[in-house]
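Section 3.1: Structural characterization of target chains.
Under the original work plan, the team committed to producing a structural model for every single-chain target entering the pipeline before any wet-lab resources were allocated. The record below documents one such target. The sequence was received from the expression subgroup and is listed exactly as submitted; it comprises 200 residues.
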Amino acid sequence: MNVSERGSRDTETGSRRLILDHAARLLRNGGYHRTTLREIAEAVGIRKASLYYHFASKEEIVEAVVNDGVRFVHEGVLAALAETAGASPPARLEAAVRGHLSALHGHGDYTSASIKVFDFGAAPAPESVRAMRRSYEDVWRRLVAELQQQGGLPPQRAPDVLLNFLLGALNGSVDWYRPERHDIDALAREFVALLSPAPR
């Protein structure tokens, strides 16, 4: 690839990211139905027809936003778990919770939009979105199994129920978390305390 081709590719990538940035903000605030292609184009400062150079449809834009939102959180949790390999079960859980919350609120528009529009209105989510979500949930399934085996979580709890409860609680923080009022490290400790077996 020559310099001219590389510059063109970089410009195209930058334009695509700019579209997604604005789309994520609009989807976070307005949801799936209220966010239109015209609105996205106006926010970017281009004609609506120009969007089709980068994306085939509104659904493709939403799909990219949702997948990025899940990916940011997925990568944050994997990094947190990698740093705590071999640590105690509570420390591993706390690291994963902290990684989820940090990424969730560090990429607010994308992650909040991915939660808000995951059902794509009345249409089923595309397979790429479902696959991305399953891959992330699998990280937590393995962690829950590991923690239950090592006594870090109550062994009698149903893993899938525990998983849904935990992710639902973490994702629900988009409605009440405020950086000036909450410390993510303290929240992670509180979540772990709520899930840990009660002392006998």
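The chain is about 75% helix and 0% strand.
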